[in-house]
Design brief:
The chain has about 500 residues and is mostly beta strands.
Length: about 500
């Protein structure tokens, strides 16, 4: 018996070595998982996770194959290692998924209240979201699932995300590919010490395919990653008034979206502070390259964007304070201390995401191409925004017969506040500038900003309305088509204007 046991151990170690499995790791096939693309492996995978966690932590290794599963839950100390050629496939059966009562969401891979957990390797998590989403909608029609059905799109929290981590600490997501989610691709909610490094997201096969959602998290690093999503690519939210999102670094990342590239919100109930974005590229994106917005009573401060390339994107910069919702304690929101520097952007005349499977909706027409926007509220101005070394090329071609907004005091006063609207740069339809429209701000600095329009536009480059403290230093406007009598910077109720 001892001899047989020694032989078994030797064979197991040899197989582990051949598969690239480190000593102490457990191969998921050893617990009965089958990578044939058909077998439901939920129980086997969960058994492997539970075993590794119980013995003090380690890796659960997926060797090449297609492992179908419903909801699985990571436990303390467990890392899923997906080897190259290994894919976790979301089950097509809605009953294989769990809506966790604490997290309030449905997912393929959960971690709830755990420490030292992660998913690494060169493998893939494929949610098969289109097929799963259709199955969920069918079940609603058959009366098997209760949901507020809207346009055959089941509510977000019911459709499974690929990854959902809730109230976890010390997380590593490295190297993997995450694709085809039935909802948000990955969500990290109320977590601390999160590292996301070198991942690829390809999730544009269904509704609400956010590439990455970080909700009320602290001490976050996101780097060297590529996200292609049909909804917001890099998204930072706050779901609770007491929530805090702080100390976040995003660097060396690329994003494409049929919504926004980088977005704060839309849910912005809590506190956001100390965010830095460095060396970011956004392309073929329908809405804004970066949207910094607080519309639910939350506060945003100390945000720096250093190095942003925005190519073929509908709107480079959108900064907004709104009052869609208010906090229970009636605390006023604020948005302050924002630095955006070293930016190059090109805005197209055509629809930037045309041809993708889930395009952004054509809405808020008639309007010509929108400018970048900084828009606060009369009692809550956007405070202390600095734009430095920024170059934006706009297409022009604005047709006043299609949409028109003048720059007289009365015409500027007629622009609605729309503080209750879902924040999108297109909300106001036509705006009276082609470069920047600014309203309700204080302490605003443009330093070495270059604005160029490639074709005729009836509007001036910049309109500033109700700005307390505006400095324009080394501003260069290139408009070869403008009437020589046109003022390129139009101001109304602007105090302490300084031009150098």
């Amino acid at each position: 018996m001892r001899t047989m046991r020694k032989i078994f151990i030797c064979v197991a170690l040899s197989l582990a070595s051949a598969a690239g499995i480190s000593l102490g790791a457990e191969e998921v096939r050893s617990f009965g998982a089958v990578g044939d693309g058909t077998t439901i492996n939920t129980t086997s995978i969960q058994a492997a996770i539970d075993y590794v966690s119980a013995k003090g932590g380690g890796k659960v290794v997926f060797t090449p194959g297609n492992y179908v599963t419903g909801s699985i839950f990571l436990k303390n100390g467990v890392e899923l290692e997906l080897q190259e050629g290994a894919t976790i496939l979301g089950s097509l059966n809605p009953w294989d998924y769990v809506k966790d009562p604490s997290a309030g969401w449905t997912a393929i891979v959960f971690a709830v209240g755990q420490k030292n957990v992660g998913i690494t390797g060169k493998g893939t998590i494929d949610g098969r979201g289109y097929d799963v989403g259709i199955r969920f909608a069918d079940f609603v029609h058959m009366g098997l699932i209760k949901d507020r059905l809207s346009n055959d799109r089941v509510n977000e929290s019911v459709r499974p995300e690929n990854i959902h981590f809730y109230k976890c600490d010390s997380i590593e997501i490295k190297g993997i590919t995450i694709k085809n989610s039935a909802c948000w691709t990955q969500q990290y909610d109320k977590c601390t010490n999160l590292l996301i490094d070198g991942i690829t997201v390809d999730s544009k096969n269904y509704w609400n395919n956010d590439g990455l959602d970080v909700v009320d998290c602290s001490n976050v690093i996101i780097r060297n990653s590529y996200i292609d999503a049909s909804d917001d690519a890099f998204c930072f939210k706050s779901h609770k008034a007491w929530g805090v999102s702080e100390n976040v670094l995003v660097e060396n990342c690329t994003g494409r979206s049929s919504a926004n590239g980088i977005k704060f919100g839309t849910y912005t109930l809590g506190t956001f502070k100390n965010f830095k974005f460095k060396n970011i590229k956004i392309f073929d994106t329908y809405r804004s390259a970066i949207e910094i917005a607080t519309v639910d009573g939350g506060t945003i401060e100390d945000v720096e964007v250093d190095g942003l390339q925005s190519l073929h994107t509908g709107n480079p910069i959108f900064i907004r304070v709104g009052s869609r919702h208010s906090r229970p304690d009636s605390t006023l929101p604020y948005l302050r201390n924002v630095v955006i520097k070293n930016v190059y952007a090109e805005v197209p005349f055509d629809k930037p995401d045309a041809g993708y499977s889930y395009e952004g909706p054509v809405e808020d027409l008639p309007r010509n191409v929108c400018p970048s926007i900084i828009f606060g509220l009369p009692n809550v101005p956007v405070q202390n925004v600095r734009l430095e070394n920024v170059e934006i090329v706009y297409p022009g071609k604005a047709d006043p017969e299609y949409a028109y907004r003048g720059t007289s005091n009365a015409q500027l006063d007629s622009i609605p506040e729309l503080e209750k609207r879902y924040p999108e740069f297109s909300n106001w339809k036509e705006l009276p500038a082609w470069g920047f429209y600014i309203r309700h701000a204080e302490g605003l600095v443009f330093d070495n900003v270059r604005l160029k329009v490639a074709d005729k536009d009836y509007r001036p480059a910049i309109v500033a309305d109700d700005v307390n403290g505006l400095m324009l230093r080394n501003l260069r406007i290139t408009d070869e088509f403008a009437d020589k009598k046109m003022r390129q910077v139009v101001t109304k109720d602007v105090k302490k204007l300084k031009k150098k």
